[in-house]
Amino acid sequence: MRSSSTEAPRRRKRALAVLICSLAAVVCLFPASAVARTELAVTVDDLPGSGPLPPGMTRLSIVRQMMQALRQHAVPGVYGFANGGRVRDSPELEEVLRTWRKGGFLLGNHTLSHLDLDRVTADEFVADVERNEALLARWSPPRPERYFRYPYLHQGNSLDKQSAVRRWLASRGYRVAHVTVYVEHWEWNGAYIRCVARNDRPAIARLRDKFLEVSKVRLAWARELSAQLFKRQVKHILLLHAEPFDALMLADLLRAYRADGVTLIGLESAVQDPAYVTDVAGAGDATFLLQVAEARRVVIPPLVAGAPPELDHICR
Fold first, then answer.
1. 212, 187, 216: which is closest to 315 by C-alpha?
2. Which of 19, 67, 112, 155 could form a disulfide with 132 if both were Cys (CB 3.0 to 4.6 A apart)?
3. pLDDT (tens digit, 9 = 90+) per residue, 68-121?
4. For 43-313, CATH number?
5. Average pLDDT over residues 217-232
6. Where are the chain's structural domains?
7. Neighbouring-strand partners of residue 84
8. Cis before residue 48, ω within 30 degrees of 0?
């Protein structure tokens, strides 16, 4: 039997309530030691931008909105990881990177074409990283140490491939910018774009509240896992994307994290943490702490995995 028009929204509200209660329960499981002094660097992937846009928004407006939030919270040493191929294919996007750099923010290498190392050879991957260097040199002055992030966080699906790429990166003076705190972005951004197209402000408000709930849990989970693996808090690294919903949420997210005892630091400080010299195999798209836990065969704390399933139904 098909449900009535009022029953579907009721089910969604019940599902949301269950999700929030589950998230709160997870947070309550974490001991006080997990919320010790926490330092966190902010990074932004996929500059000059990727994915669909809502009506009336541009890549440049997204970056400007993110820059405003970062300035508002005086976030130091923010790196944006860029794919120069998008500028090569759409030269007008050069203005996005130019604006980012003029604002005092920094650029890291994210490969030219956003290549997935699990799907190409080490030589193909290295060549793509190297081609990106020439484009990034237009906006970034030479620095003794450079920063790199693997697309999809994939570090290669074989030990030989992983080792070859790591050796090459080290020979070029790159430090890998790992990730410890991350909330999936595609599903949230898709739901947000649908809601903007329908001008559904109540749905957007619910989406924002839900994202903050999930983000707080992800931070708490990363703190607990760090305490379990290293007996302290590593210098955490947050992954965001140059996309509409991340831009919308950035100021609120930083405010929530700071209220939860987070000190914002630069990436160059974060990567100095000795934890990041841990030699771990790049397992799938796992964050650094998950990679370490898998390498040590440690049972990780519980986590509500993935984006909430009801995101797929919002504003449909």
1. 187
2. 112
3. 999 999 999 999 999 999 999 999 999 999 999 999 999 999 999 999 999 999
4. 3.20.20.370
5. 95
6. 43-313
7. none
8. yes
